[in-house]
Amino acid sequence: MPNISLPRFLLTLSVLCLSCLSVHGQDLILQSLEQVLLFAKENAPEQQIRNWQKEREQYAPSISSAELFPSLRAYGTWDNYLQLPVQLLPSEAVGGEPGTFTEIRFGTQFQASLGLEASLPLFDPELWRRVKSDRLRAQMNLQELYSQEQAWREEIARTYFQLLLYEESLKLADTRFHLSDSIYRLSELIYEEGEMEPLPFQRIKSSALAAKQALIRQQKQADLVKSSLLSLIGAGDKQIRFSGKIQDLITQAEFSTYELSSLPDWKRSELAVAWSEQSWKQNRAGHLPKLNATGRFYQQTLANQFSLRDASSFEVGVVGLSLNWNLFQGNLKRLKIKTAYLDWQIAKERQILTRQMLTQEQQNLETELGKSQQLVNEFGKLLQLFEENYRLAGIQWAEGPLNADELLQVEREWIEQQQEYLIALADLFTSQALLAIRNQTYSENP
């Protein structure tokens, strides 16, 4: 070993420590699901699109209500009559021969007009109902966006807990691999000394290799899930590490009741009933007449020369009422009313089904969370016991009382308990993910 002076060694060690700190300093550490969701809300492109869609839907009621206000239109025309219209008048009206007709042309070749036209709906029940329907439809679209956002949050929560689950599975696989590999190394020495038959040695070796393959598979799954989670939250080029602890999540798994009325699915079903009712009333109002107030003022210029500068001009002002009443449209209105009424009844029945579904989901979630937590808590000591059994089996096998079959049987029992533990942990995390998102939705929309 070459001689290195103490100051130089300390300087080198300091440089290495500083370089490690600079690398880790670039990583963003997310320690809980709340932090993951907050990061996703601020960075995920999918959420940014929904935010723009929410803002767009807020303008829909104002656009629909604009039809209730007075409208003012300015217009202008310029006409060149290449051939003036011809009218036939009795000749005797202009001093001609009785029984004959005389051709008379009215108007001038060039005509121009500038004017303003105003209108105001005075009585239009169908329009009023349509404005209310459009407002309800906009609220339904908003709740649909909230429902999509909730599903997106649930997917993030599931993926986050799935990552923690695979990391826990990776730890178990790593422990099994090291124990199996230690026993294999010992059996290899015994086999090389000629004190062990080939078949038992091959079985122990294959078990160690299988443990190594399981470790690689778990690492692959953990990397894939992490990549999926980074994509969901919009990590981009940011270096992010997730440092949630499973034991903390297990001890914090408590059910808190949320109100069904705060969920987007329930709010959307309520709005669907109200919108269907408004649509039915809107179709019924289509039988009523419509009354509009109109006003028009324009200036008209007439001349037979192309230049209208010195031509005669006339001003015209008109104020009046316009009444429209569709008395018969081939039974179309009646069929639309019946269809809208059936849509209303369907929406009410769907609201009942939605409440039943959400209530059943809440009850199942409470049961699943409680039972899964009990199972996971019991597995803590049980897994330690099976791990210790495998250690003792390895020692006894090395000393001679146990054969290879008994050793591998103890290992299989340990693996089965690991699988049962991971299944219970997966159920617990799934329940926690759904509960966390619903509680967050309730806190935002109490």
From TrEMBL:
Localisation per UniProt entry: Cell outer membrane
SUPFAM superfamilies: Outer membrane efflux proteins (OEP)
Pfam families per record: OEP (PF02321)
Predominant subcellular localization, coarse grouping: membrane
Any single GO CC term annotated in Swiss-Prot or TrEMBL for this entry: cell outer membrane
Any one Gene Ontology molecular-function term assigned to this protein's record: efflux transmembrane transporter activity
Ranges annotated as spanning the membrane: none
Secretion signal, residue range per the UniProt entry: 1-25
Assigned keywords, A-Z: Cell outer membrane, Membrane, Signal, Transmembrane, Transmembrane beta strand, Transport
Family according to the record: Belongs to the outer membrane factor (OMF) (TC 1.B.17) family.
Entry-linked PANTHER family: OUTER MEMBRANE PROTEIN TOLC
Protein name: Outer membrane protein TolC
Species lineage: Bacteria, Pseudomonadati, Bacteroidota, Cytophagia, Cytophagales
